[in-house]
Design goal:
Distance between the termini: 23 Å
Order of helices and strands: HHHH
Number of helices: 4
Largest sheet: none
Number of strands: 0
Radius of gyration: 16 Å
Structural class: mainly alpha
Helix content: 55-70%
Number of domains: 1
Shape: flat
Length: 132
C-alpha cells in the first residue's frame, strides 16, 4: 500500500507538471493515473486489517481523491502543490504509525518517517523549497 500511494502521488505530480497551458484552470482533463494498483492494495487492507488501520488507509485514500480532483481541474494560484502533497504525506504517515502501533510487537511510534530535510531547511533552493 505504501508503494502504491507513492506511485499514485508521483503520477499526480507528473500529471500536474504536464498539464498544457492551453487547458485553463477549471477545465477537467482526463486522468493519466493508473489507479488499479492503489485500489487493489486498498481492497486488501479492507479484507485483512483491523478497523484502525482501515480507517487510516481510508483517510489516505480521501486525500489522494481530493488531490486527484484538484489536479484534473487544474490547480488555482492559491493552491500550492507542496501544501497539497503534505496532506497526502501526513495521511500516509498516520497510516504507517497506526499500522506500526497495531502490528508491531513494540508498538512504539517513530519520531520521523524519513531523513528528508524539512521544507524550510536552508539546503533547499529558495525557488523550490522542499522539492528534490
Amino acid at each position: 500500500m505504501l508503494q502504491e500511494s507513492s506511485t499514485a502521488l508521483a503520477s499526480l505530480s507528473a500529471m500536474e507538471a504536464s498539464r498544457p497551458e492551453s487547458d485553463p484552470q477549471g477545465t477537467v482533463v482526463p486522468t493519466t493515473v493508473d489507479w488499479d494498483p492503489w485500489n487493489e492494495a486498498l481492497s486488501l487492507v479492507n479484507v485483512v486489517a483491523d478497523r484502525e488501520i482501515v480507517e487510516a488507509a481510508h483517510a489516505l485514500d480521501e486525500q489522494l481523491w481530493r488531490l486527484h480532483i484538484m489536479v484534473r481541474r487544474g490547480l488555482t494560484p492559491e493552491e500550492n502543490w507542496l501544501d497539497l502533497q503534505a496532506r497526502v504525506t501526513a495521511a500516509r504517515a498516520d497510516l504507517i504509525l497506526t499500522a506500526r502501533r497495531r502490528l508491531s510487537i513494540a508498538g512504539d511510534s517513530l519520531p520521523r518517517l524519513s531523513g528528508r530535510p524539512a521544507p524550510d531547511d536552508p539546503i533547499w533552493p529558495p525557488s523550490h523549497p522542499g522539492q528534490r
